[in-house]
Design brief:
The chain is an alpha/beta fold. The protein contains seven helices and ten strands. It has an eight-stranded parallel barrel with strand order 1-2-3-4-5-6-7-8, surrounded by four helices. A two-stranded antiparallel ribbon has the order 9-10. Helix 6 (170-177) runs parallel beside helix 7.
């Protein structure tokens, strides 16, 4: 099975088209105002009009409560929720039930973290997948940094690799981690929030190469 790929932090309609044409499986919108890749629900609603069927729409939220997420869902049809903050398993479960959406949790891989135990906590709460990202003391994703891929676990839940991915290393990352999916943002940008069509195409070519070798 080919490794799935999500391009996150989309802010422009031309970038939506580039992502779709390159063959990505999912498009991510960031609903976190401090992020340089933030889009409002109104902006996202306009962008979603360019997304065809069979390409999933993911909404990224950071420490938002169920009411705040539901307000966004009332304006835009998200397929799945990505919880990228300090949400506990219980909070994630409550959000998923209240908003009637599948969800997955982003976990920053800190040096002293028991990654497997942390994954299992969220899996028990009903996560559809877990995204493993590089740890940063201040930023919530989009750091351009990577963690030690050799420590990527193999578990009975889909695991998504993020952090420091680019067209130059994604094939190696897939072979090393055997990840279910990869998630990229800064690695396919010419500037924060501005995607580069050629970098997106090269990234997806790397996904194909890595998938063929896994």
């Amino acid at each position: 099975m080919r490794t799935r790929a999500k391009i996150c932090g989309i802010t422009r309609s031309q970038d939506v088209l580039s992502v779709v044409q390159a063959g990505a499986d999912a498009i991510g919108f960031v609903f976190f105002p401090p992020s340089p890749r933030y889009v409002s629900p109104e902006q996202a609603q306009q962008l979603i009009e360019d997304i065809p069927p069979y390409v999933q729409v993911v909404g990224l939220f950071v420490n938002a409560n169920a009411d705040e997420i539901q307000s966004t869902l009332n304006q835009i049809a998200l397929d799945i929720i990505q919880l990228h903050g300090d949400e506990t398993p219980e909070q994630c479960q409550q959000i998923g039930r209240a908003c009637k959406r599948r969800w997955y949790k982003a976990i920053q891989v800190k040096p002293d973290l028991d990654v497997v135990a942390e994954i299992q906590r969220y899996q028990a709460a009903g996560a559809s997948a877990i995204l493993l990202d590089a740890w940063h003391p201040e930023l919530k994703g989009g750091t351009g940094q990577q963690f030690d891929w050799t420590k990527f676990p193999q578990l009975d839940i889909p695991l998504i690799l993020a952090g420091g991915l680019s067209s130059d290393n994604v094939a190696e990352a897939i072979v090393t981690t055997q990840a279910y999916a990869v998630d990229v943002s800064g690695g396919v940008e010419s500037a924060k929030g501005i995607k580069d069509q050629q970098l997106i195409e090269r990234f997806m070519q790397g996904v194909q190469r890595g998938s063929a070798k896994r």
